[in-house]
Amino acid sequence: MAPISVAYKATISDPFRQPSCDRCAGNRGIEYSTKPGTPIIAGASGVVSFSGVVANKKYLVIRTPAGRRLTYGSILNSDLRIGNSVVAGQIIGATSNMLYFGIRESSALGDIYVDPAKYLTQNNQFLSGAVLVSGASLRSEQVGGDSAC
What we know:
Mean pLDDT: 75
Oligomer: single chain
Number of helices: 0
């Protein structure tokens, strides 16, 4: 499931750029240019583990049963609070003029940011047709079932 409904198009304005160290410059997710008020769609089921403002931008983080954390940033609004359950495909908020979407996975070295594009299948530079592949690995294998990220 894409972070934005397939009914909307959003251009990637800043792709994932792996930083060379924990505190080095980079982009730990994908940023999309959006029309303000565009519905944000949960990419997987889980529980809200963070909802708040960081550096004057509102963020929402969903922890999935697989332990991944899906981060949605620069959102305009959301009624969700820490502890709320979320179902894949549920509208979880609305965008501002952009949307940050990042994924963190647990590893032996701690949490690591991974390129969300590895979980998205896209027909072109737009989000239309994007799908979060259930259970996808870092090798981008497709696994059937619902969005269990």
